[in-house]
Amino acid sequence: MPVHRSGLPRIRALSTAGAVLLALLSLPPAAAAAESSPGAPPRGSAHMGMGVAAHDGSGGLPTARTTQTEGVDVSSHQGNVAWKTLWDSGVRWAYAKATEGTYYTNPYRSQQYDGAHDVGMIRGAYHFATPDTSTGAAQADYFVARGGGWSADGRTLPGVLDIEWNPYGAACYGKSQSATVSWIRDFLDRYRALTGRHAVLYTATSWWKQCTGNYAGFAATNPLWIARYASTVGELPAGWDTYTMWQYTSTGPVVGDHDRFNGGLDRVRALALG
């Protein structure tokens, strides 16, 4: 049957739309879920505190007078780290990003994680949570299988769940407060089952209030790593009356984000030993 010329653009448009639909249907579910908002950074580039300065502002150096132990946290943004330089500056513990979601492993993880250990630091690994891409249990599995485990050697800190502002889209990952709490519990329970340790929770008070409704139920078991770039930690999330670690700046004097452990080196070792 002959086709009238006025119908050709419509046929071409339908063909194009069909091709796009087929392409989308062929994507694996994880890839489709991991798409970012326009203008967002590339997946995998997130790191501790990425949204803290933007949402909570920045301030001066800590004024606390209690005994604290200097630490750093690093990711692929720092590349190969000069660990001896950090050690000489007084840093005694470190965390390196290991994974994000179920789609990214830090390519510098070995140099960072093993390098910190080699100069004498107590070190651990952290996971950047993306609750919109897969379940908490799946991400805990991915994390532990790729360097986020724990061993009772006195030099390995428990893994950290970095849960904060979504750099790729909606701040709370499109989840309700109750769904966010359930996702976090899913991750923490799975990590505990795999390693025998309670993971550390890294977050900022304002995000915690916004996205979990200031849930207090994890404080009895999970150490708190609070993010606040100011001279004091300020208000803590509900349930915690103290913090274990404090990320106080993203512009450290040597490299990476700098942190304070709330206690002397003996307390850092105690956390490592469990």
UniProtKB/TrEMBL annotation:
Q: What is its EC number?
A: 3.2.1.17
This protein's source sits in the domain of life called Bacteria
PROSITE patterns linked to this entry: GLYCOSYL_HYDROL_F25_2 (PS51904)
The answer on whether this UniProt entry bears the keyword Transcription regulation reads no
Identify the enzyme class.
hydrolase
Keyword Lyase in record:
no
Which Gene3D superfamilies does the UniProt entry name for this protein? Glycosidases
Cellular location(s): Secreted
TM helices/strands, residue ranges = none
Region (Disordered) location = 32-73
Q: Where is the signal peptide?
A: 1-33
Q: Which InterPro entries match?
A: GH, Glyco_hydro_25, Glyco_hydro_fam25_subgr
Q: Per UniProt, which keywords does this protein have?
A: Antimicrobial, Bacteriolytic enzyme, Disulfide bond, Glycosidase, Hydrolase, Secreted, Signal
Q: Which GO terms describe its biological process?
A: carbohydrate catabolic process; cell wall macromolecule catabolic process; defense response to bacterium; killing of cells of another organism; peptidoglycan catabolic process
Composition skew (Polar residues), residue ranges? 64-73
Give an example GO molecular function. lysozyme activity
State the SMART domains in the record. Answer: Glyco_25
From the UniProt record, list the reaction(s) this protein catalyses.
Answer: Hydrolysis of (1->4)-beta-linkages between N-acetylmuramic acid and N-acetyl-D-glucosamine residues in a peptidoglycan and between N-acetyl-D-glucosamine residues in chitodextrins
| GO CC aspect terms | extracellular region
* Bias kind Low complexity: ranges: 32-46
Biological role: This enzyme has both lysozyme (acetylmuramidase) and diacetylmuramidase activities.
Q: Which family does it belong to?
A: Belongs to the glycosyl hydrolase 25 family.
This one is known as lysozyme
Q: What is the lineage of its organism?
A: Bacteria, Bacillati, Actinomycetota, Actinomycetes, Kitasatosporales
